[in-house]
Design a protein that fits this description.
Oligomer: single chain
Distance between the termini: 39 Å
Structural class: alpha+beta
CATH class of the largest domain: Alpha Beta
CATH architecture of the largest domain: Roll
Shape: globular
Number of domains: 2
Largest sheet: 6 strands, mixed
Helix content: 25-40%
Strand content: 15-25%
Radius of gyration: 21 Å
Mean pLDDT: 91
Low-confidence stretches: none
CATH superfamily of the largest domain: ph1033 like domains
Number of helices: 8
CATH topology of the largest domain: ph1033 like fold
Amino acid sequence: MSTLHIVQGGVENGDKAWIERAARDNLSTPRWVAPKSAQIGDEVVIYVGGFGFFATGRITSQSKPRTDWVNRYGAGVDSIRLIEPAISIAAIQRHLPELTWAKYPRSITTPAPDVAAKIRTLVSERRKGGILDLDDEALEAANIDELRRVALLKAQPSATKSQQKVIYRARSLAIRLYVLQRANGRCEGCTAPAPFHRADRTPYLEPHHTTRLADDGPDHPAHVIALCPNCHRRAHHAKDAEAFNNSLKKSLSSLECQ
């Protein structure tokens, strides 16, 4: 079996957007930062900060020194395929405790063959639709794409009452955490920054349900918005509460499309 390498991608530098486009349009790149030892045919898992294991690909050229980046090597990569949803660093740490790189994922690395095999299994299970953890601790550390996947879970017709309860609870928490991550510290009503931070240093915003659903679980994320306390009270108690809620629904439509 070919060697597997973990390589890096960023968000602000355009890597994430390029990876998504490459997966959609079958693009390749001639010089992704790769280990010096990378060989043609090797596999890569691309880690994107804030998202986790984001995509896979394959090395298409011998690794050579980068002329624009001292002490770095580059190699061609193609066959880009997204991991949806990306596997968060918390999930990686939980399921691959032997992958010491995950304690401080700031570089490229080549895991040992036995660890690489477990990475392949983790990626394969995720691509089959597997969200491995529905407990509170896992959801609190999940990335936004994982939270959205859990928020949209539905219990199978054959699910027991106990299983249905677990999914309902997980969806409720995932929706709340998802909309707070989506808001990224700003009220989705007035766009002002959160008025203060909690003790854990996260911005204080309040999830508000614009529409109640009866779809075998809690509200759909497209009907829950993160508001500052002032906008939240306005949505419930203001003279123009109905009109304000209607405007929030329009905002949500745009936010979810993004």
